[in-house]
């Protein structure tokens, strides 16, 4: 099997228009197709996918997801972001929207956690590029700490492209 990346995720939501507006207004996803009251297909700003999110409306009476609380299910999806400056700007946008629920330093990854309008959790993550991975970053993978973006920008640079040599092959232009 040659799986090499996630192409898209499909979400069941209460209100497709509300969910599409959240992803387009807060995270700059592009609305590709909206079937009012039924479905929407959205693409992330720098994606080459046909679409990254499909949302299907199941109505206002739908209960909250119980995944991880009382049922099995997916915990969250994660989208990679290019730079720590972009991660910081995203943190501000998510906070302004009342969606930001956490920010963590996982050593080799710097993560924001947020909820969409239906409470479905997602992560926005910056990955330390391979050439900057050191013993301290790798060792820090064993614990989760609060994210200090100012410290991380001072250490790695606000505009350093994340993921090179990790999720983005060396030599690929992004």
Labels describing this entry:
174 residues; alpha+beta; 4 helices; 22% helix; 27% strand
- How far the N terminus sits from the C terminus, by CA atoms, comes to 26 Å
- SSE succession: EHEEEEHEEEHEH
Q: For the largest beta sheet, what order do the strands appear in spatially?
A: 5-8-7-6-9
- Count the E strands: 9
Description:
This protein has 174 residues and is α+β, with helices and mostly antiparallel strands. It is built from 4 helices and 9 strands, in the order E-H-E-E-E-E-H-E-E-E-H-E-H. The strands form 2 sheets. A 5-stranded mixed beta sheet has the order 5-8-7-6-9, with helices on one face. A 4-stranded mixed beta sheet has the order 1-4-3-2, with helices on one face. The radius of gyration is 17 Å and the shape is globular. It starts with 8 loop residues before the first strand and ends in an 18-residue tail after the last helix.
Summarize the SSE layout with pairings:
Elements: E1 9-13, H1 16-27, E2 30-35, E3 39-43, E4 53-57, E5 77-80, H2 84-96, E6 100-105, E7 109-115, E8 121-127, H3 135-139, E9 145-146, H4 149-156
Parallel strand pairs: 1-4, 5-8
Antiparallel strand pairs: 2-3, 3-4, 6-7, 6-9, 7-8
